[in-house]
Every structure is written in structure tokens, then in C-alpha cells.
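PROTEIN FOLDING TASK:
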Amino acid sequence: MKEKNDDTFLARWLADTLTEEEKLRFENSEEYQDYLHIIESVDLMEAPSFDKKSVLKSIQQKQQIAEPKVRKIRTSWLYSAAAVILLFVGFSYFYVNADTNFETTFGDQMTVTLPDGSEAILNAKTTLSYNKNSWDSNRNIVLDGEAYFKVEKGEKFTVTTTSGTVEVLGTQFNVLTDDAIFEVKCHEGKVKVTSKNQETAILTQGNAFSFINGETTSWNFNTNDASWRDGESNFREMPIKHVITALQDQYGVQFNVDSIDTKQRFTGTFSHKNLKLALRTVFVPMEISYTFKDEKTVILKKAK
């Protein structure tokens, strides 16, 4: 290229902001094919690795073999080109794959407003993540814990967990996931649920679905009943192991469960406002005694 370009020329070329005159002059230049070769090499690489020297050596060998006309390649400029292109691709790779993450602690709740105006209310000890940069084309949430969703109408909205997925278009629903537990309650609209073993169900308002330890169950519930969002956790035929985990998440205490059968099922509620009341509400009906070893440790035993 006979005319010297300014320091922003390459960046403007990558961003496709050259004037028509600059673009035409560049495409007719001797160095244009060299830059295309760099681009093609970057496209074929597996991010984030890139052997800049190998690409430049290949270009140099090609120029020496293919053309009878001798011309000097400005190596420093090509190194800069490769570096700028690598930076551009590396940043794009990071930007596209970056996740937005939220996490609650013991006894905590959090309301997350998603990019489309949808809301996710997280229960205690819950993590939620999504890709903000691809949200418009892929409304996908990754959830571990429990959350209540208010979804704006639009493209498919998916909640992905280790135990199953929930797909909706616009609705309100609750998802609970914990180890071998996957439970969905539809409060408004319609949702499609798929468990880890590929069993599916369509839920409408007041319908619930659970997949617990390989067992699938469907039932109806009252959408006006108090929930964890109101400070009261409720359960239906839930293994006591998970209820104990929920108590730990709300109150930050630890339980010694060596002397009880954690596979027992519990149906009922407990309050988030008073630990002793919550313990009595859960364990007295189950005929399980509880004693405090210290302020943060509770020992459970089968009542005599």
C-alpha cells in the first residue's frame, strides 16, 4: 500500500467504518490479502489460544514463493494487525460468554430484574445466572435453589436446573431444586415442565409437579396460600432431609441427623421469624426430639 494509513485505520477496517474511497483503495492494495489471511486464521482457532508468529511466517513464505515480484512485507505492521485482531476476537469471546450471577445467603431473599423486565425472587441460599449479552435471543436462566418468577411475554423463557427444565412464554411460577428434588408450581399462565428422566407435564394455574428421588407426582394447590415469599415455607410430601436443609438456609443453624430417618416425608409449614417455633412446628408432628448443643447446632433424635 503506497499511502500511509493512520493508527486507527485497522480498527476502523475491523469495525467496517472506512469510507467507500478508503475501502476501495485498501481492497485494491497489495497488502489486503495478507490481512484477510490473518482473519481467516483467527476464525479457525479455538479461543483463546492463537499462534501469531506461525500465521505471519506462513504469510511470509507464501509471498516469497507465489510472487515473482519482490516486495518487502512490513512485519511490524502485520504483528500489530494480528495483535489487534486477536484482542478483538478475545474480547468478543469473553463478552459473548460472560454470565451475570446472583446469590443469596442464609435467611436472605433477593429480587432480580431481568433484562426484559421479568422478575426472579430468590429464596435463601439460591444462585441464579444468565447471559445478559444473548438474552434477547435466548432467555435462559440457570437456577440452583428456589425462586419465584414473574415472566414478561415474549420469546421462550427457560429455567434450567440439574433435575429438569421449565419452559414458558409469560407467566408466574415457583421452581425448587435441591439434589434429587425438582418441584414446580404454576401461579399464573401455563408452563411446560421436563424432569431429568424426560417426563413432561403442562401446568396451568394451581397445578404443581414434582420429581423427587426418581418419583413423579402431580397435584393442585391454592395460589392464595402463604409461601416463602411471605415468610412461611410450605411442603407437601417432602423428604424431611430437604425440610431440614430449608431450616438451615433460613436460620443459619446446623443439624445432627445421625439418629433419625431422613427419608421420612413431611407435609406442613414453618415460619421464618422464630426458630424455636419453626422447630416445634416441623419436628413435633414427626415425633422427632430436638436439643441445642450450642447456639448454632441442633441435635435430632427419634422421640421416645
Summary: The chain has three domains: 9-97, 100-220, 231-302.
